[in-house]
Amino acid sequence: MRPFTFTLCVLPFVLGGCAGHHEHHRQMMGAGMGGGMGGHAGHAVATPPARTDSSLAMLPSGYKKVVAPAGSRVYFIDLKNGDTVASPLTVHFGLQGMGVAPAGMEKEGTGHHHLLVDVDAFDVNAPLPADARHRHFGAGQTEVSLTLTPGTHTLQLVLADQNHIPHHPPVMSERITVTVK
Ligand SMILES: [Cu+2]
């Protein structure tokens, strides 16, 4: 389960120091290691996406979901599938094509971040639950210091509207698996 290429991939993080120096990581990621849209074949087993139903433009309650502009995306700025990390780990949330607004604020083209930890299915047609596995960043935060138990965990970002309901279409990152030392 630990091919040699995987070790090589992790090495720059060890050298860079995982607890700090995020700017360094970001530059390095931007320069050479991709923006989180696949293309890391051979590094780690792919993490299947979380299961969701198709997004409805309007919920059965009559609630009209906030529309996400075409091409909008959320992504992990400096984490990718297969990474080995130390806990606590600072996770930076990237957002393209939309803006961040605090929960409760209705503003076109915005939403707030949610981090799903070890979630393999969720409802894109309902408010996201709020618990240890579904973290809300309703103040408009774009990063978190995350404490994880040793072992493997999946992480996924989902943007949601002022009422914590995912957009239409949903704006969510790929789901990744990280190994915590
Ligand atoms: Cu929320």
Automatic annotation (TrEMBL):
PROSITE patterns linked to this entry: PROKAR_LIPOPROTEIN
TM helices/strands, residue ranges: none
Region described as Disordered: 30-49
Domain (DUF4399): residue spans on this chain: 91-181
Domain of life: Bacteria
Protein name: DUF4399 domain-containing protein
Extent of the signal sequence: none
Alphabetized InterPro entries for the sequence: DUF4399
Species of origin: Hydrogenophaga atypica
Compositionally skewed regions (Gly residues) per UniProt: 31-41
